[in-house]
Amino acid sequence: MTTYKEINGTNIEAVSSDPSNPVEGQVWYNTTSNTVKGFGRSATAAWSTGGNLNTGRELFAGAGTQTAALAIGNSAIVESYNGSSWTEVNDLNTGRQKLAGAGTQTAALAMGGVEAPAGITELWNGTNWTEVNDMNLGKTQLAGGGTTTSAIAMGGDATPGLSAQTELYNGTNWTEVNDLNTARKLLSGVAASSSSALAFGSSTPAKALTELWNGTNWTEVNDLNLGRQQMGSAGIATAALAIGGSGPAGPNTPGTTESWNGTNWTEVAILNQAGAGIGGAGTTSAALAFGRDTPPSATTEEFNGVGSPTTVTFDNS
Hints:
By secondary structure, the chain is mainly β. The chain is built from one helix and 28 strands. A hairpin with a 4-residue loop joins strand 13 (143-146) and strand 14. The longest helix is centred in the first third of the chain and has 5 residues, at 4-8.
């Protein structure tokens, strides 16, 4: 019988703990757990349970990654996630819901929202929130993304009507630029910076509409498979997730997760707990969905997408 060493040129390494940074295809024997393990990439996408928020809520903003995220607002509450549990950190100066977020766990923006001066923008430095220059147009139920020095705010409700307005933030000021093609609120969006963004979904009725921002103009691209509002979102303009939301069948019906590859949306997984008003963070291969509505929930789920890194324990039999 051919041995592992004959095929690969080395014996299976025996270690007391799993390698911290294994390479794809690596196999080892864990002497502590007495198991053979290997490192590869997952073949299927799925949601699994993460640590619950300390305070259940909805209609708030997210920022960061699957293992280093912020849940921002609904009230003034802000929580930080370390990959397993949430910790409450310093509050927003102005509590509000239906706001948008951008940035990372240590450098974030909170923009717009209800129950506050709707153009308000606050900057997070990893410890405290500081109010900075307002958006030009006060809005709620908007989408956003980017970084603290290169952010985008798109759509929303400008009261008394839907807004198509887009604004860019350069770290100091907001500048109004070309509008979305379709005015809408309760949409979702993602962006790595102010020069590239994706806006998808909306309300009344729930829409599948998707638009792509190239730094100058919005272009309508292929729709979501299921029109929804109040979705969670993760990723960037060329690789995004649309998570949960409320669809045509009524609130809390879809737990659908769709993945955007830069051209088309594909359904990839279903949340374990469906809902709308979800906060989102991360990427298409490692995302986080937290909170949801009716009643406000503390549920957190972690997404490991197709092709995401994974450690497998082999059956000794």
